[in-house]
Structures are given as structure tokens and as C-alpha cells.
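ok so dumb question maybe but i'm new to this and my supervisor (M.) told me to 'just get the structure for MarR family transcriptional regulator' and walked off. so i did the thing. is this what she meant?? sequence i used:
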Amino acid sequence: MAKKIKFNFKSPNDSPGYLLGQLTMLWQRKQKKVLDPLDLTQTQFALLSALAWLSNHNTNVTQIDIANQTNFDRMMVSKVLRTLEDKKFVTRQEHQTDTRAKTIRLTTNGEVVLQKAIIEIENADLDFFVTLDTKLSQFNKNMVQLIDKNKNE
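this is what came out, is it supposed to look like this??
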């Protein structure tokens, strides 16, 4: 290599993007470990959780509501919800007033699997982030700030 590649950061540990990527990979690996026995991916778990959260406040949750809650691509949400429907974890029905929309509901099987998954994931998260101790709340606030700033890009 004739030329040295120039980096803005002096080392990988100075790069927030690199660190976030590394942290995300490790966190996803831990989540996969607890979700695999429940036949769920992290994306499926996120969509089921969003559905449950939204259903606590609204009886007519749509695919778009779930996509907005998760910041996931709408087409991807549709595909993953079809998979969850095949697994009998959700039902998708025509919306009562908007014929273009689908109303999504957890099935009894979906509720059981999701409740088990939530317990496992919350325990895994507590274990994963334990070293932050009293700084966890500020870490969460920083993440929310970054999400809010960047979610429309």
C-alpha cells in the first residue's frame, strides 16, 4: 500500500460509530442467546414488544403504528409480521375504518412467548449493562437524545 489511509480519530476507541457498532454486535449476540430457544429473532421480539406496548393504550394497532414505534422500515415490518402470523403469534385483520390498514393483535401463544421473552431479555439487559451502575439512567437519556435527533434521517 503506497499511501497511508487517514482517519479523523486517532484510534478505534476514539470513534463513537465504531464503538457503537462493537457494542451493538455484543448486545445482539447476548439477545440471540436468550431468544433462540423461544424461536424469536431480535427483530421479531422488538415488533412483538412494540405491539404489546401499543396495545396497552390502543385496541386498533396498525402495522404503521408498529413501524413508527420501532423506527423500522414499513416493508420490513410487514414481512416480519407475516412471519409472526405464520408462527401463530399475531393476527392481522382488516382495519374497521381504514381498508388500506391492517389491525395487528397478539394471539394467546404470542402473549405467552412474549412474556417469557421479556423476562429473559430484561434480565440479559440488566446483566449486559451492569457495569454502568448508576450511570445507566444517563446512558439511556443520551440514547433517547440520539434517537430523537436522528430518527427522521
